[in-house]
Design a protein that fits this description.
Elements (H helix, E strand, L loop, with lengths): L3 E4 L6 H10 L1 H4 L9 H10 L6 E7 L4 E11 L5 E8 L8 H14 L6 E6 L4 H9 L3 E12 L2 E11 H17 L1
Parallel strand pairs: 4-5
Antiparallel strand pairs: 1-2, 2-3, 3-4, 5-7, 6-7
C-alpha cells in the first residue's frame, strides 16, 4: 500500500503549503526557492494551470505534506519532453516518501501526460537530490554552468534525464523486487 498520495495543488492548500515551506527553510535554502507568500503561491497556481506545466503535492495518508514535484516547460511534438523539479518538506525528508511520490509523478508523466523524456537539473552539491534522481534511473548527461538563478545567484547544475523506455525497465524491476519481498 502506498504511504503517500499525489494531487494537484489548489487555493485550499495554500496555508499548509506556506507552513511547510516555512518549517523547511533550512532544508530548502540555497537549493530551491518555492513560493513563500500568499502572492507567490497565487502566482504558482496560475503558472501550473497552463497545459505546459503540472505541479503535484505529495502528502502522507494523515495529510502531512511530504514535498512538491513539478513538470515544467512541457514541449509537445517530436520532443514530448519536460523539465522535472522536486523538493521535500521537513520533517518528512529521508524517509523514502519522496521516492514514492516521484515514482507516481514519473509514471503519470510517461502515462497520462504521454511524455517521452524528463530532464532534472540538480546542483552537484545537493547530494540527496542527486541520489534520489539516480535511484529512480536518471542518468547523468552533462554539466550546465550558471544554469539557474537561485537566491540571487547563478548556480551550476548537473543535467540528469530518463526516457519512457528507461522508466519501463525501472518500473518492471521495482515490481519484481516487491514480489520478492
Amino acid at each position: 500500500m502506498m504511504k503517500v498520495e499525489i494531487f494537484q495543488p489548489g487555493a485550499e492548500h495554500r496555508a499548509a503549503f506556506l507552513a511547510a515551506v516555512q518549517r523547511s527553510e533550512s532544508l530548502l535554502g540555497g537549493w530551491v526557492s518555492p513560493p513563500d507568500t500568499p502572492e507567490k503561491y497565487a502566482d504558482y497556481l496560475r503558472r501550473y494551470s497552463a497545459d505546459t506545466h503540472y505541479s503535484y503535492l505529495a502528502r502522507t495518508r494523515d495529510g502531512n505534506l511530504v514535498g512538491c514535484i513539478n513538470l515544467n516547460e512541457i514541449v509537445r511534438g517530436a520532443l514530448q519532453s519536460a523539465y522535472l523539479g522536486y523538493h521535500a518538506f521537513s520533517p518528512n525528508q529521508g524517509k523514502g516518501l519522496m521516492k514514492e511520490a516521484l515514482s507516481a509523478v514519473i509514471s503519470s508523466a510517461f502515462g497520462e501526460h504521454e511524455l517521452h523524456r524528463l530532464e532534472a537539473n540538480i546542483q552537484s552539491g545537493n547530494v540527496r537530490s542527486v541520489g534520489l534522481a539516480k535511484s529512480m534511473g536518471f542518468r547523468l548527461e552533462g554539466y550546465s554552468p550558471r544554469y539557474l538563478k537561485i537566491d540571487g545567484e547563478w548556480r551550476d547544475h548537473e543535467r540528469y534525464a530518463i526516457t519512457s523506455e528507461d522508466w519501463a525497465v525501472e518500473a518492471a524491476a521495482a515490481r519484481d523486487q516487491s514480489k520478492d519481498s
